[in-house]
Amino acid sequence: MAFMQLEEKISCAVSAVIGKEFKASIGPSVGGGCVSDTRVILSKDSDGLKFFAKIGIPSEVSMLAAEYYGVLEMYNTKTIRLPKPICYDSTDRFSFLILENLNMTNRAGKREYGLLGKQLAMMHRCTSDRGFGWHRGNTIGPTPQLNPWTSNWTEFFVNYRLHYQIELAKRNNLRLEDEATLLQKVEKLLNQKQNVIPSLVHGDLWSGNIGFLNTGEPVIFDPATYYGDREVDIAMTELFGRLPEDFYTAYNDEFPLEEGYEQRRTIYNLYHVLNHFNLFGGMYGRQAKGMMQEIMEFI
Fold first, then answer.
1. 204 is catalytic
2. Considering the domain 2-100, what is its CATH architecture?
3. How confident is the model over 211-225, as pLDDT tens digits?
4. Which reactions are catalysed by this chain (predicted)?
């Protein structure tokens, strides 16, 4: 009964966007979502239309709305492929986000990864005249991500990325000796990079959020969108194992990274490792402490 109500709501919402009647049939779970239930939405008619859905509880509608607008912001740059965002809404039992359904694979070669690097660099050239942040908060996984507009990148990253995650980690019983000194060191290191450009970033760019169409066209998805130092995206592609070298070569040919990136990479990835500790605990706490020690030893 609840799914019948959801199908009716999705039918109305999709029909309003595509300009013709669509009768939704919720297909089986397809997996892949770390937060929401992910499903293919089929048409009850024989027109072959399909969409991809993320389905959550009603209170998650704000999170799904933020993802809708984040995907839309990147989609509208026309620099790199994302699933086209269709709509979002909720019922009294569910919330949902509907996206274009793309058949993707993670199998790709030199040309495809080179194209990914070039197109990501093109997206990173899309900037904001409001500074660093975004027009709304969103999430990194299920963790809230704060995005108040801030004129200074170092201030933004220290306050709304690292310090926020450190405070969560302390509440989750991660013992830290002197986080104030760490944050001061991070400030010093980030301030060495002058004139940081507020680039449109994916925000959660690891291999699991990258796919390829059968034409070889790269696709990125599941973002945690904001405007920040573009290096945060490149850094995360190295956190769980580097992408093929063709990606980095093509990116640097299009938009070269600046001196000092190797140190900033550790700083930027500490944010994600702390978030993983706050979500999963265990070994990520030890990894975070190791990264903190490494940062303190940077010259």
1. yes
2. 2-Layer Sandwich (3.30)
3. 999 999 999 999 999
4. N(6)-D-ribulosyl-L-lysyl-[protein] + ATP = N(6)-(3-O-phospho-D-ribulosyl)-L-lysyl-[protein] + ADP + H(+)
